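Hi team,

As requested, here is the filled-out complex form for the hypoxanthine run. I kept the field names the same as last time so the parser does not choke. Let me know if anything looks off before we queue the next batch.

— J.
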Amino acid sequence: MDFSAISTEQLPQLLLDMPKAELHIHIEGSLQPEMIFQLAQKNGITLSYPDVASLRAAYAFTDLQSFLDLYYAGASVLLTESDFYDMTMAYLQGAVADHVVHAELFFDPQTHTERGVPIEYVFNGLHRACQDAKARWGISTHLIMCFLRHLSEESAFETLEAALPHRHLFMGVGLDSGERGNPPEKFARVFAKCKALGLRLVAHAGEEGPASYIENALDILHVERIDHGVRCVESDALVQRLVSSQVPLTVCPLSNIKLCVFKTMQQHNLPALLSAGLNVTVNSDDPAYFGGSVNVNFTELFKAHPGLGAKEAWQLAKNSIDSSFVSQDQKNQWLAQLNDFFTAAVAVQ
Ligand code: HPA
Ligand code: ZN
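And here is what came back:
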């Protein structure tokens, strides 16, 4: 493909319209302040903020934990199956507008079961929304259940046990929440059990935690993808390993800026990782909290890095499809769609 035939004027629209997969999105992080207030009112929950504007104003984070405190408070308005359904439909409708053909959604059952919400409300609400979105808009989805790493191994095992009646509804498991002081090895036995059950494995690592957390997620948890992973650059050996293994990193540029992992988008290392040959993807993480959807992430990233062009856009979209947990047949269909899309863009010239 002659990417040089695509002009810089064309690029912003291509980023928006190209088919892509989103592999790192916490569905509870898609809950917009307006919906938080609407659900709070419906469910008789009093929030510590008087209105949408003051809640939004509190979205000024200094690190991961300062975000998580608000994120868990926001999720506390979810009580019924229809709450989970409505939240998921709203995200998927936006994803369709972003030309996301496939999304792998993280969800945190412990955030809800700890408040007395039955786990089946979570599963049924999410699953029904995924089914309806597929029927209505054609979007494909998988669910990935995350364990909260600040909680105990015992709590993770209990969550897995409670989820097993719904095993057919989720594709894999992940590990999220506060990274520092909660290394991957804390969940070695949980992940071994999940692997034995045939679940696909991913984990957040190297967002705030050191490069060794990425190595331990690979060596001890045997994950197939690393969520974030941007601190891999602190180990040359690890960078080499990620290049040769092509283990995907699901990077979330706006999240990293909002949580002060990088000071500015210009300083974000995604372009360097991409040109070094790592298998990186672009994702939104928690779109309601960090400034926007996957397309906003693409737009802001490319705006800050003029060296990124059509070839890199294509590569990032290709990586997202290649790194998903769908069948090779399905990947081939979307990859053909992606190549047709870029071929048409070249032909416009
Ligand atoms: N990191 C860890 N846990 C999370 C995140 C994140 O970026 N978003 C939601 N839970
Ligand atoms: Zn995340």
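Two things worth flagging: The domain at 3-347 is CATH 3.20.20.140 (TIM Barrel). Residues 24, 26, 176, 204, 227, 285 surround zinc ion (ligand 2) (CB under 6 Å).

Thanks,
J.
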